[in-house]
């Protein structure tokens, strides 16, 4: 679609006689703008689980087509509601996750209908059996803030756009056909019987439709309210409770029915609205809220009156252009597309959660009000690694502060007094492990994000790290590790807690809280209690101190010793103390040998089909899931950064491409994308909280960060090619850089990081002990 626009411009120029000008003919076409370079279809096939619909940066509404809602045991591949290869579209719903490994949402599903209303979706392989419609694949258009498609069965052209809190639909119906709209309030991603606990739909005298439902899904007890208005008057309507399955004789007429008949309550509600034959499009405006219907109405009105679809589309496009233009990318077309799409996916969540008046629903199910914009959708086990560190570079400081303050606000009203683990719409899911809101807060505070109360933040972090009932923390505090005979996934929990503890110690150090620092520095060393020097793997221990037997480092089973992985991946999860891990491994050479063994492992005979999140294997390195994401950079800590450079080339070439199946695993709310963005820039935050980035190698000729402090930091690559995959030398602001890391403050100061690439590795660059990135052990030894 991007090229079609450029060709149209060229054709117009030729018609005006400009094509005969040699200068015009020979001038190279301008590269697509950042917005034009984004392809929202990347990740919508394969394991990416992204959606192609309309969303503003960090928008509350994600308005996107749903192609199927499978029964919950089959819902994994439909976590975003859409699969690129599905032949039919159910309709368009207003809330979606981007790239998660679990499904939910899909709220307020609307379907335009040009004939008889069918109240059930029907079967995809039986055209006409329900309200779902086949669609013209070639007619699909997706760009930041806009989606369009032609529905074959209904003959409707559907267009979607969205502001921060409002979704706007534009439906063009066939001439002389009745224009109708179905609202299926039963429908939800991660569908199963009994998910909807209660719901309500009301038609107000002014034509506004509002509703409410409470669901028992991934987040139990989630409340969702909506408000909807139409650009044309409703001439007939039906409200149905499908549990009762009461037959109706045609559409009711507004104003001729009693008030109670303009409202329906129950657990299986639908509504149909008739607008009669119309000339011109029907526009539908929808807002959602976690608070109440009044909040949804206020949100509906917060972004302007009327139904100016094109104005909303233009405003959101401009917002995306501003957000994406923070990064300037010069690279071959496919790489540039992949990178701008990765940046786009990194800026969808955490999403706005508070209403326009500042109210929001917390994990205590009470309504609160804040003077900052509250965000939710925190996939913290995934995003603490790279997505949140990326936001500290590319998102405005006030946005980062809002996210941190949202975590702290949730902790203050949590029934358990702890920070979110994996939350959305203000509700906790208890998914994944660790207390990874802690490194997100520490990293932002230590990097100088203004507007964060450091003392209050540290108190909240300590409260989460000392809540004994959570995930074996009581035993961890008493024994120095989580025992596997008392808590599943104990090996993973121990090493992840130890890293989180280290970030608390760094926060306490900055704030001068010596006792807290000393306690959590000790706890940060607890990873050693899971390391087996005989096998040189991180392993699970029993409460009596012995390692659990039998031991198979390739075994992956849910609820076993590890979380979505095995010993091969988790034995590298000591991001705060690689020097200590290397010493335990037997030194630099032994560490490099072990890393090579992981990447080159022969998986013949291994079957991981039972583990949905295990994708993107390179030996026992699993790029499609997060525990491996820093592993390629571990070579640099062992004095072999050239091995990092070679592995990064292997990973990028095999795990990413500019195609619908261009992500090897779930994007996980931007983490897979953020990894690519950092790696393409030539550096990666192995240990958020250290304020250091480990140097790898760039994947673009030039990337410039237009920092929010007014400065610019530029990364350039000389001689970059498929053959020249190694770094020969590096300079920072024209001066030789012999260390294999760069500091956050150096980036924020602005300047130029220049890589010279070559076909042969420079095995001496970054190799000396003093040139290596931060490690807790090395810092204590050398004070650097």
Q: Which tags fit this structure?
A:
784 residues; single chain; 22% strand; disordered N terminus; carbohydrate binding; six-stranded mixed sheet; Beta-galactosidase, Chain A, domain 5; signal; alpha+beta; Glyco_hydro_92; 28% helix
Please specify the SSE layout and strand pairing.
Layout: H1 2-15, H2 22-26, H3 34-37, E1 54-55, E2 62-66, E3 88-89, E4 91-93, E5 109-113, E6 133-134, E7 141-143, E8 146-151, E9 156-162, E10 166-172, E11 178-184, E12 196-203, E13 209-216, E14 220-230, E15 236-241, E16 263-266, E17 269-277, E18 282-289, H4 293-301, H5 309-324, E19 327-330, H6 333-346, E20 351-352, E21 359-361, E22 367-369, E23 375-376, E24 378-379, H7 380-383, H8 387-394, H9 397-413, E25 422-424, E26 427-428, H10 437-446, H11 454-465, H12 473-479, H13 490-511, H14 514-524, E27 531-532, E28 537-538, H15 567-570, H16 578-585, H17 588-599, E29 617-618, E30 621-622, H18 634-637, H19 641-655, H20 671-681, E31 683-684, E32 692-695, E33 702-706, E34 712-718, E35 726-732, E36 735-736, E37 741-743, H21 744-748, E38 751-758, H22 776-782
Parallel strand pairs: 34-38
Antiparallel strand pairs: 1-2, 2-4, 3-6, 5-11, 7-8, 8-9, 9-10, 10-18, 11-17, 12-13, 12-16, 13-14, 14-18, 15-17, 19-33, 20-23, 21-22, 24-25, 25-26, 27-28, 29-30, 31-32, 32-37, 33-34, 35-36, 35-38
Helix pairs in contact: 6-20, 9-10, 10-11, 10-13, 11-13, 13-14
């Amino acid at each position: 679609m991007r090229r079609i626009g450029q060709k149209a411009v060229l054709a117009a120029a030729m018609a005006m006689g400009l094509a005969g000008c040699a200068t015009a003919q020979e001038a190279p076409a301008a590269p697509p703008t950042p917005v034009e370079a984004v392809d929202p279809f990347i990740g919508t096939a394969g394991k990416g689980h992204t959606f192609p619909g309309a969303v503003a940066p960090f928008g509350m509404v994600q308005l996107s087509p749903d192609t199927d809602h499978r029964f919950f045991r089959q819902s994994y591949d439909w976590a975003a509601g859409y699969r690129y290869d599905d032949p039919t579209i159910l309709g368009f719903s207003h809330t979606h996750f981007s790239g998660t490994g679990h499904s939910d949402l899909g709220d307020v599903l609307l379907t335009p209908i040009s004939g008889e209303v069918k109240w059930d979706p029907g079967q995809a392989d039986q055209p006409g059996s329900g309200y779902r419609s086949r669609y013209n694949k070639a007619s699909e258009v997706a760009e930041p803030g806009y989606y369009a498609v032609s529905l074959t069965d209904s003959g409707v052209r559907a267009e979607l756009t969205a502001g921060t809190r409002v979704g706007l639909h534009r439906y063009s119906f066939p001439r002389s056909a009745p224009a109708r709209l179905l609202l299926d309030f039963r429908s939800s991603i991660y569908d199963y019987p009994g998910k909807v606990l209660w719901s309500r739909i009301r038609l107000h005298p002014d034509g506004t439709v509002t509703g409410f439902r409470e669901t028992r899904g991934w987040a139990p007890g989630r409340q969702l309210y909506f408000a909807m208005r139409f650009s044309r008057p409703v001439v007939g309507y039906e409200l149905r409770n499908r549990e009762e399955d009461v037959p109706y004789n045609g559409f009711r007429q507004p104003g001729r029915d009693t008030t109670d008949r303009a409202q329906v309550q129950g657990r299986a509600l639908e509504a149909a609205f008739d607008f009669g034959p119309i000339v011109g499009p029907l526009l539908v405006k929808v807002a959602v809220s976690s608070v109440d219907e009044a909040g949804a109405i206020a949100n509906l009105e917060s972004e302007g009156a009327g139904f100016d679809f094109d104005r909303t589309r233009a405003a959101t496009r401009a917002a995306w252009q501003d957000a994406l233009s923070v990064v300037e990318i010069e690279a071959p077309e496919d790489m540039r597309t992949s990178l701008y799409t990765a940046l786009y996916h990194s800026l969808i969540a955490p999403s706005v959660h508070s209403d326009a008046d500042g109210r929001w629903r917390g994990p205590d199910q009470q309504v609160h009000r804040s003077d900052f914009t509250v965000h939710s959708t925190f996939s913290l086990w995934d995003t603490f690694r790279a997505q949140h560190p990326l936001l500290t570079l590319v998102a405005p400081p006030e946005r980062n502060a809002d996210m941190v303050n949202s975590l702290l606000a949730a902790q203050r009203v949590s029934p358990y007094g702890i920070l979110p683990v994996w939350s959305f719409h203000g509700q906790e899911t208890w998914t994944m492990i660790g207390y990874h809101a802690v490194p997100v807060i520490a990293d932002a505070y230590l990097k100088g994000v203004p507007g964060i109360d450091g003392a209050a933040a540290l108190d909240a972090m300590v409260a989460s790290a000392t809540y004994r009932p959570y995930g074996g923390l009581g035993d961890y505090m008493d024994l120095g590790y989580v025992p596997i005979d008392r808590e599943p996934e104990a090996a993973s929990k121990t090493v992840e807690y130890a890293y989180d503890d280290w970030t608390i110690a760094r926060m306490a150090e900055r704030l001068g809280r010596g006792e807290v620092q000393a306690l959590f520095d000790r706890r940060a060393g607890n990873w050693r209690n899971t390391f087996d020097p005989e096998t040189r793997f991180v392993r699970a221990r029993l409460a009596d101190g012995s390692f659990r037997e039998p031991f198979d480092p390739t075994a992956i089973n849910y609820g076993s010793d590890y979380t979505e992985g095995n010993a091969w991946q988790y034995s590298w999860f000591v991001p705060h103390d690689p020097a200590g891990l290397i010493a335990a491994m037997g030194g630099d050479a032994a560490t490099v040998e072990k890393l090579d063994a992981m990447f080159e492992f022969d998986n013949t005979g291994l079957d991981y089909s039972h583990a949905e999140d295990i994708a993107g294997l390179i030996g026992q390195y699993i790029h499609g899931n997060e525990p491996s994401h820093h592993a390629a950079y571990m070579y640099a800590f062992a004095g072999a950064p050239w091995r990092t450079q070679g592995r990064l080339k292997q990973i990028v070439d095999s795990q990413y491409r500019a195609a619908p199946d261009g992500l090897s695993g779930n994007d996980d709310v931007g983490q897979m994308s953020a990894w690519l963005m950092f790696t393409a820039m030539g550096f990666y935050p192995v240990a958020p909280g250290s304020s250091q980035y480990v140097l790898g190698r760039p994947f673009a000729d030039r990337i410039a960060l237009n920092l929010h402090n007014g400065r610019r930091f530029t990364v350039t690559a000389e001689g970059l090619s498929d053959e020249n995959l190694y770094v020969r030398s590096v300079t920072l602001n024209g001066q030789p850089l012999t260390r294999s890391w760069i500091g956050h403050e150096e980036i924020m100061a602005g300047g130029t990081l220049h890589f010279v690439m070559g076909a042969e590795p420079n095995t001496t660059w970054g190799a000396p002990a003093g040139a290596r990135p931060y490690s807790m052990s090395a810092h204590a030894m050398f004070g650097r």
